[in-house]
Amino acid sequence: MTPPPAQLPSVPAAQQVLQFLSTVLSQRGPNALPYAEETKWLIRQHLVSLVEAYQSRRPKASSFTHNDGRTVNLLQADGTIPIVYDGVVYNIPATIWLVERYPLIPPSVFLNPTRDMVIKLNHPHVDRSGFVHAPYLKNWIYPSSNLVDLVRSLSQIFSNDPPLYSRQNPRPNPNPTHNPIPSPSSSSNHSISSYTPGLHSRPTEDPSEVFRRNAMKKILDAVHADSAGLRKVQEAEMEGLLGTQATLRHREEELARGLREMLGEKEGLEQMLQLVLMNTDILEGWMRENQGKWLRDVDADDAFEPVDALSRQMLECTAEDLAVEDTVYSLDKALQAGSIPFDMYLKNVRALSREQFFHRALAMKVRAAQVHAQVTNMAGRASLYTS
After folding, report:
1. 333 and 216, same structural domain?
2. Locations of Pro residues compositional bias (predicted)?
3. Cβ-contact 78, 194 below 8 angstroms
4. Residue 132's beta-bridge partner residues?
5. pTM for this one?
6. CATH (domain of 125)
7. Which of the listed residues 154, 212, 275, 357 has the most CB atoms within 10 Å of its CB?
8. How many domains does the chain have?
9. CB of 91 within 8 A of CB of 192?
10. In this structure, are 278 and 336 located in the same domain?
11. Domain that includes residue 377, residue range
12. Where among 178, 201, 224 does a domain terminate?
């Protein structure tokens, strides 16, 4: 059996509102409200500020049914929205539902017309079901948007275009007519009212009562101004904390990426170390096997043996090319030192350059022949695999 919804105590005190919200927001288990822990303090702040600004508002927890049929226990602010039409104050009954992701997303606002009220057709900001889609809700910005500014915005919009009509039935009639209330032709006796009465013209009051009411109004205005200032300071602090949190998350991602790169580099170095150790073992084994062979002289020309005729020819061309390069370098040094005359230097460099050109041209032909031989060899092996 679902427990009855939690209700706010009847005494309209901000302290009791705060106690009520602290109780319902701290519940755990199946009766816990579906709000994120990091936003509960801001939800409590918004509702307390709303009750302080509009005493007709009463927060409570109740069941809310979504369009898809899901039912969830949510906080709501029930009461009226004051409007001024033709110099008369009216009160529009409305409920503000704080959905699961509030205050990251805007609340859902519904009008609650009484039996003698009807919703105005084709209202620009209210549909037939009473759902309100005002600009402030569409432009909701977290964390600066709040419930107090929302109600103020709705009050201004509905003052310009009231969303409710009064159903007037002067005599029994199967087809009653609907007259808009408030409207220019309507009497103030048909004012829209709900939980709090409208403020109409009163007879002459006691001056002391007027003074007391004006003094309380000034005090309330000062309290509201202080509350708005504190709210702006807290919002600025929260924005700073959110910016710091985003910076820390970015740095955390950078550190995690750097750590992954370091681990990958470590694995690569460990693999290279294993390869070096393996090659070291191979070289040490070769040295042990060939240590006795170093006693005799080794001819440098016999240290390397080409595998075929093309490789031998390439080795000879490369050696001749490098020998010519060294000779030209020596001639440059001799010319700088004044050991040989300039005309002899030019004559020898010309002859050596011609010789070096032939060696390099021959090396290019040999290289082309080697590439052709490699391609032919690979094609032969591919044919063996395909067959």
Report:
1. no
2. 171-183
3. no
4. 109, 126
5. 0.43
6. 3.10.110.10
7. 154
8. 3
9. yes
10. no
11. 309-386
12. 201
Max distance between CA atoms of the chain, in angstroms, equals 136
Cβ atoms of 198 and 90 closer than 8 Å: yes
Which of 181, 201, 221 lies at the terminal end of a domain, its last residue? Answer: 201
First-to-final CA distance of the chain? 80
Question: H helices of the chain, where?
Answer: 14-25, 37-53, 135-138, 147-160, 207-290, 309-337, 342-386
Is residue 4 situated within a structural domain?
A: no
pLDDT per residue as tens, the chain (387 positions): 333 344 444 444 577 888 888 888 888 877 888 898 888 889 988 998 898 888 888 898 988 988 888 889 999 999 999 998 888 888 999 999 999 999 999 999 999 988 888 888 889 999 988 999 999 999 999 888 999 999 999 999 999 999 988 876 434 334 333 334 443 333 333 333 333 333 333 334 566 676 777 788 888 888 888 888 898 889 889 988 988 999 999 999 999 999 999 999 999 999 999 999 999 999 888 888 877 665 566 666 666 678 888 888 998 999 999 999 999 999 999 999 988 999 999 999 999 999 999 999 999 999 999 888 888 888 777 666 565
Indicate the burial class of 123 (C-beta count within 10 angstroms; 0-12, 13-18, 19 or more). middle
Cα–Cα dist 93/86, whole Å: 19
Residues 87, 172 within the same domain: yes
